[in-house]
Design brief:
The protein has 14 helices and no strands. By secondary structure, it is an all-alpha fold.
Length: 325
């Protein structure tokens, strides 16, 4: 399965290099990668390569974050938005545009990351209080409460100011277009740390899926594992949301597809979900470029169009069950 997903990612990368407003032959793509300067080499190296690298990071982050979120909450509808991360990023962007007058994604990107991280920490802090600590049900409810609160604040800000609405809507739709070339390198450390943490926790996530009591009897520190899992989700989803906006369904749908082939073992599920997320994100971006030439359809719209019917099929077939073994 991992080999198939890796091949899918490589194919999506090649398609992202070659397909755009103008199609570029694969031979020219290879020449540009090799350092050539003829033809469309400049376009490929300076525009499409940075965009592809950013899409790769966003997809890896969302896929892995979705798998970890579903395991730590034992919720089949778990995704990075479940604990308020997407809502936190959106609220921070709206504030930075409306209150600070920022106009470029390169300017408000760090506000988005900070807002996403703080919202995730707030949801975990609220869900972790009281009897029993941070149980899956309490985390999900706390995340829903934080999301509703922040969404209300965001809607208030964008409706009160037309300029804020105009700027915010381009970010909120979820897209790789218009991002600065150096953005991916700035977010790379956060994604790398988040992926390493998610993969490193995979053995403990398997224990969590057995139930908290049984996991504790096997020597797993349940609270610490769930807290570290939340940190991994915050790092991964926060970076993805900051870079591309709240791209929907990747973190939700991809782990379900991967689980059908790998089974519930998180040691395979997490890395394969990351690869699947990268393949889907890049594919959605390419499809968006092809669907509305010479313009483009945002990747967030494409992932929603692909993910919503799939989610409906899962519900109809009764495939959404709590993740326990």
């Amino acid at each position: 399965m991992a080999a198939v997903l890796l091949a899918a990612v490589l194919a999506a990368v090649c398609a992202s290099f070659a397909i755009g407003t103008k199609a570029v032959p694969l031979s020219d793509v290879l020449a540009a990668i090799g350092g050539g300067t003829d033809g469309d080499a400049v376009v490929i190296r300076e525009l499409r390569m940075p965009r592809t690298f950013l899409g790769l990071l966003v997809g890896l982050a969302l896929g892995a974050a979705g798998a970890v979120a579903q395991d730590i909450t034992r919720n089949p509808l778990g995704d990075p938005g479940l604990i308020g991360i997407s809502a936190g990023g959106a609220f921070a962007v709206a504030v930075s545009i409306g209150a600070l007058g920022l106009t470029s994604p390169y300017e408000y990107i760090w506000f988005a990351f900070l807002g996403a991280a703080l919202a995730g920490l707030l949801a975990y802090a609220v869900g972790g209080t009281g009897y029993g600590g941070a149980t899956p049900a309490k985390l999900a409810l706390a995340g829903a409460a934080v999301t509703v609160l922040l969404d209300a604040g965001t809607n208030t800000l964008v409706l009160l100011d037309v300029r804020t609405l105009d700027q915010y809507r381009f970010w909120a739709v979820g897209s790789l277009a218009g991002r600065e070339a150096g953005l991916a390198m700035q977010l790379l450390p956060f994604v790398a740390v988040g992926l390493l943490l998610a993969v490193g926790l995979s053995g403990r996530l398997n224990a969590l899926a057995l139930g908290d009591d049984l996991a504790s009897s096997l020597g797993t520190k349940v609270k610490a594992t769930r807290a570290l899992g939340a940190v991994a989700v915050i790092l991964l989803a926060g970076a993805a949301v900051a870079a591309a906006g709240p791209v929907t369904f990747i973190g939700l749908v991809v782990p379900h597809v991967v689980r059908a082939f790998t089974g519930p073992d998180a040691r395979w599920l997490v890395p394969c979900s990351a690869l699947g997320g990268a393949a889907l994100m890049l594919t959605a971006d390419v499809v968006g470029r092809m669907a509305a030439r010479p313009g483009e359809l945002e990747a967030g719209v494409v992932t929603a169009l692909l993910g919503a019917p799939f989610l409906a099929v899962l519900v109809k077939r009764g495939k959404l069950k709590e993740h326990t073994r």
